[in-house]
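Methods — Computational structure assignment.
A single polypeptide chain was analysed. Its primary sequence is given first, followed by the predicted tertiary structure written as structure tokens.
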Amino acid sequence: MATSKIIVLDFGAQYAHLIARRIRQLHVFSEILEPTASLKQLQDANGIILSGGPASVYGRNAPKFNPKIFSLKKPILGLCYGHQLMAQQLKGKVEKGKVREYGLAELQIKNQDKIFQGLSQRETVWMSHGDKVSHLPEGFVIIGSTTDCENAAVADFSRNYFGLQFHPEVTHTPNGLIILKNFVFNVCKCKADWTIGGFLKKKAKEIKKQVGSRKVFLLASGGVDSTVALALLNKALPRKSIYAMHVDTGFMRKNETKEVEAALRKLDFSELHVVHAEKKFFEKLRGVIDPERKREIIGKAFVEIQNRELKKLNLKQEEWLLGQGTIYPDTIETAGTKHAAKIKTHHNRVENIKQLIEEGKVVEPIAELYKDEVRELGKELGLPSKLIGRHPFPGPGLAIRCLCSNGIEEEQQALEQKAREISKKFGFKATVLPVKSVGVQGDSRSYAGTVLLQGNIDWKKAGQCSTVLANSLREINRAVIAVSPEKIDSIKLLRATLTKERIALLREADGIATSIVEKHGLANVIWQFPVVMLPLQVNAQGEAIVLRPIESREAMTASFFEMPSAVLGEIAGKIMQLGGIGAVFFDVTHKPPATIEWE
């Protein structure tokens, strides 16, 4: 058993488990507990981290919390909400900030002792907050500030209490891991003794115990998560105990089902069955516009197909468990933890699935891991690099990359004027598009508008403009820049639903982007590359395609990928040759404030 342990108190949103994952990267065991955890549960921790979360410490719905943790005399690190909570509990003051900060900021470090050891005097950090600590508790001093947040980093060195308004756990704070490392080893005096190999051995035993004499029915999409989950199940259980099924929903990428079937059969795992259910999925989604409704319908359809196949095989449901390749971001974005804000419904977290989970009928062997950990586990299990390195592809597939609309536009004149004023400062012409997408702002779900920028493509200016737009305008969570055509005279919102014709067109556009990126050797640099269709008629021609390549490690945060101009031009040029496409845009929004997928 590990001799060192960091406990993370989960105040919700996307951060508690990301913090725990970062600690595991340091090969130190981490455990996540509710904020109301007893002193007995916390007693053997080397240190405690208070996570970020969507609530306000002075709000009516602020999570309940055990204030006695400050009597333990253990090192404490408060991050974002945790920073504000610690300040409030120790008789400081927290209030609503005049400026919201979402995205990159520059931290000026004033004291490099302990947690900032080894850093420069100026560091790039990732902010996502609306409240701020306005008055420090007794014994605390400022150790770092940003332009808009004086108390961005504070410390009480005598008690080893530290508070950071920013998020060191996300990859967009470049040296954030150094900060956590300093806290874990320099302050908490931990030892490095946790490995993915140790996780594999422990999880294999847990799977055997959970499954027992029953069998597992696994939906294998062919993506990284389901493939690694299948490999882990095959490691822990006899082959005859696993029934793997791939469902072609009709919303797959080009040649997806054929390639998945060939790849999985080569692995010599448990028997693979392929079900073609395109007709069923299109029928159920006919006329559906709302993105959440799409995800719910698709999730339920997977369960119906599973039950249908079990009946065909004359298999008794009580003898089977449903296996899923769920990873932790799927859970927390669906409000799967007590204090998490719902960002979107994942197909493996619809009500039918939740009920099966409560009944103990679901096995999810990698549910506590993040994408890079899943890939590391895949290597440990001996999977080929081509499968492990595949770009993530959502279970609902192209259905949530093909936006739909009732064709009714909202009045946005006042919003557009504000967007134009902001964008002009960066050299862009701005238009507020009559479409909405899902985002994550202040750790909560947003469903807001998109600004189209027109002008010379300058990635730095476009990214800065996108950040300022989302920070300044609550009605905006995303920005795109026009790639083609050079001049856009008219944009009209269309009445559009999920049809085979629209999906086929999107599939071709996606195939073009994928093949060109692979040709230029960028597939391993880009972490994920959604290609999205918008129900907009541009210049009285066809619909708009949005390119959304991103860089990330764990999907909790992401930056848009700065595509080389020659590659971007090649992709846009070939997509524009498709009949029915009137424009190609490029998403220049980070996560947050925008999610990776648009729906």
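Note: Residues 339-347 have pLDDT under 50 and may be disordered.
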